[in-house]
Specification:
The structure holds three protein chains of three kinds. Helices cover 46% and strands 11% of the residues of chain B. Chain B is mainly α. Chain B is globular and about 60 Å long.
Amino acid sequence: MNASPRFAAGATVRVKDDWPERRGPCHIRTPHYIRGRTGKVVRPLGAFPNPEDLAFARPAPERHLYHVLFEQPPIWNEGRPGDTVMVEVFEHWLEEA
Amino acid sequence: MAAPPRAESLALLERLVAALEAKGIVTEAEIADRQANTDKASPETGARMVAKAWTDPAYRALLLSDGKAAAEMMGVSMAGAPPLGVLEDTATRHHLVVCTLCSCYPRALLGYPPNWYKSFAYRSRAVREPRAVLAEWGTMLPDSVEIRVVDSTADFRWMVLPMRPAGTEGWDEARLASIVTRDALVGVALPKA
Amino acid sequence: MPDDHTPAIHDLGGLPRFHCTPVEHDEVPPDAFGKKVDALRQVLAQKKLMTVDELRRGIESIPEGEYFALGYYERWLRSIATLMVEKGHVAKEVLE
């Protein structure tokens, strides 16, 4: 992985509203509850071999990983405003928002 | 409580290990060695790291920037272990670690994850109703404190650096470490003087 | 949640089915069976015969009824055994 991370700390990003598990066997590390949600990059965490490939013993190119922060209440329609959830998300799941 | 493994699972393990051994892939001795090694890890390591961070600002800075290096400094071999991220609690922010997808846990520092950490109830609820889950541990936080749930989904493993409680002034590292429980390192409890 | 957005079996975050289930503060350490499965997985990973990602993929493909009925390390074992067969390291008969 030579390219630098596409997103910097503070960037607003949207998690792709994609459901590969509906299309067939797969292994993904993006939990369902953040798909389609908008969050803020806390910081890039480095680049790691893509688990979606590792899970099938395929060659696994590295992907940038980010800590992304989300507000809890919009996700669940409950909870205390200001409470948050921070999730490790790979770059190919993120788009500019 | 977790049910004991069923007879067919015990038999499957036996058949699998025998088949792997017959092929020269693994030996019972290698498995036993690995287990002995895994058994050695315990939350005391994480507790010592927190106690040192409470008393030594340079170590605290290292712990927060490179958890793996900070663990190595305490004599823990982190070779092959995933990167360790450390989450700093403040007067206005409390961290709670969960893995909703499986059971990712900083095993090199805390040992085997407890059954509750792996339970379906914890994995589903911690991320949605963290205050209700914390209350089950007797941990009540004021509304002025943000609860930041950390869903451990990928390559890092996460440990909480809790705040040093009042009333511990003048304590040495060993005494401080004694109040840092595994639950505090996951974020379900707070250290108490 | 619409049908086409039903999360996969292991993707448990926020699921209403566990909403009122208290977290049982179970502190019982792994038994001999669990520790051995755990160690076996580590040995196989060290020997580059499987990754933790493959282990997870195998666990996630356990049918729902069994996923919730099996114990934690029973799910691991099921996945490891299936992988070892899939990769040709042991014969299929080992699973039967």
